[in-house]
Design goal:
Function: Plays a role in the regulation of phosphate uptake.
CATH topology: Methane Monooxygenase Hydroxylase, Chain G, domain 1
Number of strands: 0
Distance between the termini: 12 Å
Subcellular location: Cytoplasm
InterPro entries: PhoU, PhoU-like_sf, PhoU_dom
Subunit structure: Homodimer.
CATH class: Mainly Alpha
Number of domains: 1
Main location: cytoplasm
Shape: globular
């Protein structure tokens, strides 16, 4: 499937609406990218001002999701799309929801940075799990960029890579949680701070889950196959097969 298939209809209005959907998703994805990159800068430097920027930006992300929802409803009501056009609309709705939830997760990271600054005498980087937190956030940001590029190109070539990356993050996340949990007993005076780190780790891991969901929506758009209910072995085999095509 190529993107040009979505702007070759007799109806110019439908062509414009479908092009708008592509552009709105890419713009919204760009906003979440900025949100995540700003959170990474805030994490690296313990920068509260940057963390507050992340929270402000989330309102713009939420508005973008509402606008995409409105546009999808208008196309469905007025132009009754079928086949690949309908898949585009459904995929767009799913991707917009995942992007909006990504933004919510990034806000949790920003709130942790602010809380450490305002309520605790130490920085979050002084605790177990912080290195993994930065690692997972950086990897998740890369996954988001790859997924958005795949949507722009209407391509599933990197779908298998995204799933593999998400599974690698699951391992890093589990090891980080084990380290932090061990510190609960060894450093009982730090439990509140360690719980904040656990929450931020969970938020960054969820960002990678949403990036994977976006790629699965792209697979649905391009291949017409809903892979969400596939077990892991069958999914891997399917993604390997479509990468070779």
């Amino acid at each position: 499937m190529e993107k040009k298939e979505f702007n070759s209809h007799i109806s110019n209005q439908l062509n414009r609406n479908l092009e708008d959907l592509f552009n709105h998703i890419l713009e919204m994805g760009g906003l979440v990218e900025v949100q995540l990159e700003t959170a990474l800068q805030a994490l690296g430097a313990g920068d509260v001002a940057k963390a507050k920027e992340v929270i402000v930006l989330d309102k713009v992300v939420n508005q973008a999701e509402m606008e995409i929802d409105r546009l999808c409803a208008r196309v469905l009501a007025r132009q009754q799309p079928t086949a690949s056009d309908l898949r585009l609309i459904l995929a767009t709705i799913r991707i917009a929801i995942d992007l909006e939830r990504m933004g919510d997760e990034v806000v949790k990271i920003a709130k942790m940075i602010i809380k450490f600054n305002e309520e605790y005498a130490t920085a979050c980087r002084d605790y177990s799990g912080y290195a993994e937190l930065l690692d997972i956030a950086t990897r998740s940001n890369s996954m988001l960029k790859t997924s958005l590029n795949a949507f722009a190109r209407v391509s599933t070539a990197e779908a298998l890579d995204i799933v593999n990356q998400e599974e690698e993050i699951d391992v890093i996340y589990k090891n980080a949680c084990d380290k932090v949990t061990n510190d609960f007993k060894a450093k009982p005076d730090q439990v509140e701070c360690l719980l904040e780190v656990i929450g931020a780790l969970r938020a960054t891991e969820r960002v990678s889950d949403h990036a994977r969901n976006i790629m699965e929506s792209i697979v649905y758009l391009v291949q017409g196959q809903d892979v969400r209910s596939m077990d892991e072995e069958r999914l891997m085999a399917f993604l390997a097969e479509i990468r070779e095509d």
